[in-house]
Amino acid sequence: MTNLVIQATKYIMIVLIILYTISTYRYLRLKTHKGRNKACGMQLFCMFMFHLTGNLAIFVYTNDISMIVFYLAQVIFFILYLVLFRIFYKKASRLLLNNTCMLLSIGFIMLTRLGADRAVRQFIITAAAAALAMAVPVMVRRMRYLWRFGWIYAGVGIVALLAILVFSQVSYGANLSFNIGGLFSVQPSEFVKITFVFFVASMFQTSISFKRVCVTTAVAALHVLILVASRDLGAALIYFIAYLLMLFVATRSYLYLFGGAAAGSVASVFAYRIFNHVKVRVQVWRDPWQDATGDGWQILQSLFAIGSGGWLGAGLYQGMPESIPVVRSDFIFAAISEEFGAIFAIALILICLSCLLQFLWISTWMDGMFYKIIAFGMAAVYGAQVFLNIGGVIKFIPSTGVTLPFVSYGGSSIVSTFIMFGIIQGLYILKQDEVDRIEEERKQERRRQALYAQRYGKGAEGPADAEERRKRNPSRRRADQKGQ
Q1: Which of 11, 42, 200, 293 lies deepest, with the highest CB count within 10 Å?
Q2: 290-306 CB burial, b ≥16 within 10 A, e <16
Q3: Rounded CA separation 80/126 (Å)
């Protein structure tokens, strides 16, 4: 009976995530508020039903009453997060809100299956991070002078990264995090990538001269070099990709884009020659069978898990994701693929892609260079992180040790991702305020014209119309001025 329920819930969850993904892309296509509201309603229905179905499978398999309590706590969190965010920020992007909850629900279900203690810990950190991030949009809206602190952003970031290099504990061969009081660890590079984006945007806000580009590139390169020395290759790649793309958006120069890509390729070759850990990662990527029981064990187990899952997956608790090292954080995508299948995994990728598309659209929508580069930089950081995580899991690229945002286990990753999404929401609301202000001015002008026509006749033109006609007809404007 248990296996029957597990299999039934698996198919239901696949159908629900497909419907959720379809609704997501319908939202992106629709232009009317009514249509978008319907798409968002369908998203929320699919998300809550998906969450319920997954936790039903967990309870049936474990027969643990505490799983029901944990499920109810998650439901209360999702409802409070959605309702409070909409109360405080009525103009927020509902797509990003819904996607956040959907990705978190996938992560909670998979982490609970892998170990309830870690899932509870992740849930507590998520609730705290959501409460903290609730204040981020209003800060973006109110603090119009954030562009002035470029060198402060750089200084804070470099000091934090140097502290990792000198004082942090070694985890899986890399200097990644600080352990605070033996209770939890903090990975500063997750937060420095936000200050890094603000630094670059601040520098290019006032000037994109060759001298400014050289100075900014030197400071950005210092960030990357410190991360390489700390053996945090994933973060170094994210910083490099984000800077290169932000530089291109600011300058529109293909010379900088291709020149930076060439310089990065040369630097990668030198890193391969100099750093042994880089050489090991590349060799494992090229042929993991050379050391199948050592360094190649992780990627081989990941590929076995993905292959055994097939299109429809084995079902919750029916796979063996525990055999994959670091499965809760870096390789959770392999566990998802094994137990939910390739169709589910593709839908998950499409949901992440929809977040990236929303980031990019907001970037093109913004007017000021500072806000435009920030939105694009956040998109580059988010997109690069998703690509590096999934690409490493499926052996498309060498494994870099980064998390899948909102899905993988990791407190620093959750907090920094919430802050990133909060910044994007703040930019979205800021632009909505401007659009609403312009629309209100247009309404007031139409009312003035209607009153003028009512007073002087239907065919009479209002003052604004006359001014516009004079602007379009210079000779008439000169005649009017001469008559005056």
Answers
A1: 200
A2: eeeeeebbbbbbbbebb
A3: 13
Q: Which two tokens stand for residue 377?
A: 């930089």
- What's at 9, amino acid-wise? T
Q: What pLDDT, in 10s, does the model give residues 332-378?
A: 999 999 999 999 999 999 999 999 999 999 998 888 889 999 999 99
For residue 174, CA distances in Å to 89, 109, 233, 295, 417 come to 40, 29, 9, 15, 22
State the pairing for strand pair 169-171/174-180: antiparallel
- For residues 347-377, one letter each, b for 16 or more C-beta atoms within 10 angstroms of the residue's C-beta and e for the rest, the string is bbebbbebbbbbbbebbebbeebbbbbbbbb
Tally the residues of the chain: 484
Alpha helices in 30-65 (DSSP H): 33-62
> Facing residues of 171 across strands?
174
The answer to whether 91 and 429 are in contact (CB under 8 A) is yes
CB atoms within 10 A of CB 447: 10
Question: For residue 118, what are its two tokens?
Answer: 């870690």
What is the Rg, in whole angstroms, of the alpha carbon atoms belonging to the chain? 26
The CA–CA distances, whole Å, from 137 to 91, 92, 123, 130, 133 equal: 11, 9, 22, 12, 8
| Structure-token pair, residue 223 | 């960030």
Reading across the β-sheet that carries 174-180, which strands appear in turn? 169-171, 174-180, 184-186
Question: Which of these, 222, 234, 229, 220, lies nearest to 275 by C-alpha position?
Answer: 229
Residue 108 has pLDDT above 90, yes or no: yes
The DSSP H or E segment spanning 129 is helix 116-133
Q: What is the pLDDT of residues 409-457, one digit of tens each?
A: 988 999 999 999 999 999 999 888 887 777 777 888 778 777 777 776 6
For the segment 453-476, what is each residue's pLDDT rounded down to a tens digit? 777 665 555 555 555 555 556 555
* pLDDT band, residue 231 (cuts 50/70/90): confident
Determine how many CB atoms are found less than 10 A away from the CB of residue 469: 13
Looking up tokens 């499978």 gives: 57
Measured CA to CA in angstroms, residue 61 lies from 130, 315, 334 at distances of 30, 11, 21
DSSP state of 461: P
Of residues 65 and 450, more confidence is placed in 65
CA distance 41 to 32: 14
- Which residue, among 297, 177, 273, has the nearest Cα to 232 in the 3D structure? 177
